[in-house]
């Protein structure tokens, strides 16, 4: 009976639904153009995209819309924090290579003097060394491109020399007035982030970290193991001028220095739930005396590492107040081949303090902060440090610390303003030290053959009066003023820097830091502090 009733009412039910559908279709947006957009309306493009589309379609003159879009994006980002940035397609590969810790090329370091490309050093075991390239060679031609002349730039050279691993680049070099053709098979070239690791004093290791890349943790572990084999029981970590990088690299290194189940850092943002990063396992160096060197160029991941060590009273932070970058960025790839690096959260170190300095007065004010510190006197006087966050935080041992502008060191070492006399400033800005060291090395190779490593060079090489005299003659050709009336401080700086640059010529950054640190007041203070402390690494 019920089935018969349903059969009677079904046609009527379909008719009602059909009529209701027709009525709703007539009333909904798009009904007057056939109803095609009832359920699939166009997404709202927004005024920014509308303006760009109108300019492309209607503007009186032809324009490079890529440049317009980049300027528009950069203009938009000026209203955000200073670390949200747009990376154009032309820059993205270089940025990624720097962070990934390698690139594909031939493995030489070069400089350009007198419109000539000079090979300053050749990577040991790299493609160029295998092919027979030598320090002192002058590159004349890369494939079909001449590379001598006033139009050559470092960027042009890099583009010519870099390429896919396994491909071949044909070069013509000048060696002692003889032209030589050298084909070089490109390979993967490491970009090291540990610039130096050596025994700075009996039982005391030194590690210089220049950035936190994808390879930094592995480099750090290798350095620690090598130093422990040489008897290291105490450690100095140099983070000066380290701009940061990958958070993971900093937290994994912190895990090797701080004992288990301790908070290293946490992140939190409006749409970014709190995430804690803690130590997880026994580390290689959890109990030895530790010092960390910082300055106004130490930022981001450097500040996280230094801050965690300070907050847990694990070691002594020595130097000057750090940069003050406590913002977390995530990188998003864009359809045009570029990327947006957008701030999504803030970092908070174990005491709960944020290390981010204020940026509410605009990007220019933020960028000028380091210069303002210098003018304010902070670089030479700890009492001149401005604390922008008045909230008092405490370390694990109850020591007072402050946030809102970087990590303030436990022991302050002033900036040496005497290094910027007119003579020294001219020498640095004209790259005279580096150019002279290269020229002197290539013309005096025999006298350097007796040094087996950077340690032997640092201990035994002397900057003789004859070497200083040769440098002055060279520097006068560079129009350096005041060379005949040097102060005692200028003389000392020139001797120290010349030795360091020659060490760099021989042993790259490892040699440079071992030589320059012998006279560095911050390193000397760190060695003094850790030497007073008792305890071994295990």
TrEMBL record:
Keywords (A to Z) from UniProt? Hydrolase, Protease, Serine protease
In the record, what terms sit under GO molecular function?
endopeptidase activity; serine-type peptidase activity
Q: Which positions make up the signal peptide?
A: none
The record's Gene Ontology cellular component field reads: outer membrane-bounded periplasmic space
Record carries keyword Flavoprotein: no
Q: What Pfam family does this protein match (any one)?
A: PDZ_2
Q: Tell me, what is an example of a GO biological process annotation in this record?
A: signal transduction
Highest taxon of the lineage: Bacteria
Show where the PDZ domain sits. 92-176
- Record-annotated membrane-spanning stretches: none
Family, as annotated: Belongs to the peptidase S41A family.
Protein name (record) = Carboxyl-terminal processing protease
Organism of derivation: Chitinophaga ginsengisegetis
